[in-house]
Amino acid sequence: MKLSIKIIALLFFSLQWISISAQVDTSQIKKHIEVLSSDSMEGRLVGSTGEKLASEYISNYFQELNLTPFTNNDFINYFSFNYNSNPHGNGTNSNTITGRNVVAFLDNEAKYTFVIGAHYDHLGLNEYNLSTDSKGKGQIHNGADDNASGVSAVLELANMYSKNNIKEHVNFIFVCFSGEELGLMGSKSIAEIIKKEYPNSSLMLNFDMIGRMDSTNSLNIGGIGTSPNFTITINENKPDNFQLTLDESGTGPSDHTSFYTNGIPVLFLHTGLHLDYHKPTDDADKINFKKTAEIVDFAKSVIDDLALNPELPFLQTKLKSTENISSFKVTLGIFPDYTDYGDGLHIQEVIENRTAEKYGLQKGDIITKIHKTDITDVYTYMKALSTLKKDQFYKLKFIRNKKNQTINIKF
């Protein structure tokens, strides 16, 4: 019996997809993370020698793939901004910093363009006191998970799409941002340029901290409410062993926010915070390279599906603040889960020897109220912190094992 042309075509493209998805190279992901998070990169602080070395590594890789420089025949896109290391001061600590985004273009002569990005900068030697380690000053913060892991995904996808001998229905912009740690500075700059020069950009997919997937195989995906096609596509491509937590909001504490505010649908992939977050101990030996590769493979399957019908409508979602919790006068000493569950702030980790541990809060507790502020998510949590003062007691309500509890806590 002869097969119909339609069935033959479906079989062809199915086999073709299988061969492409098998190309995810775990060894290359491992190499990229190890190089970018090595001591020689000195923590990749925006404006530093380490940032320059990291940008050259990324730029050279884009050149090896024969990708097109985004502007002025150069993969480096420079940007400048003023940064005040003391946000509560009078501005005397403000200085001008010049950063380096690294941007490449893959031209498929298509109408629509997808942006694939991740920030590559980190904390350097804690020059701006953003470390969560009280003894972090002067120590190299290698940022293997934050965010050499995300950059490895961008580089591997650039490799796969540039070598697959297929002309997709979309063009690709591969971008590695700098200045994220000081306030999304690089992505704010380049997002406006991309929106102007590529007005048909219909997706920005952002990887930020995807290297520490644990035994639960949990992956958080933000931005699913920014286009009506996202949820079904993500669920159809979800690996059986993945446990997904989906968040509708197009904003949050990473670079996809800059594209959402320019009217571009976004997706944000991350595996969550951990006790090495913003510490010198965020090193490559703690990365799960195999699972990082699985996340890249999953992301590519989602991109491939969306690229078949790339006219993705943009939807507005509930706005969330991107303010850094470290800027407040009081801190609780937890790593919050940024996912909006709607029932409170879920504690992802409790930091040793800090306020939360002292008063008995635990991983998995759900904070529902601090003082006079009802807590529904990380952003109402930050709002609450902004109203509190040091050395005063406040009531804190939380849920543990489905039971409501109240404690008095001194910040």
From TrEMBL:
Q: Which residues form the Peptidase M28 domain?
A: 101-298
Residue ranges constituting the PDZ domain according to the UniProt record: 342-410
Provide this UniProt record's keywords sorted from A to Z.
Signal
The molecular function terms in GO held by this entry are: metalloexopeptidase activity
GO biological process, alphabetically ordered: proteolysis
- By its UniProt entry, which SUPFAM superfamilies does this protein fall under? PDZ domain-like (SSF50156), Zn-dependent exopeptidases (SSF53187)
Q: Which domain of life is it from?
A: Bacteria
Signal peptide residue numbers: 1-22
Q: Per its record, how is this protein called by name?
A: PDZ domain-containing protein
Species source reads: Frigoriflavimonas asaccharolytica
Organismal lineage: Bacteria, Pseudomonadati, Bacteroidota, Flavobacteriia, Flavobacteriales
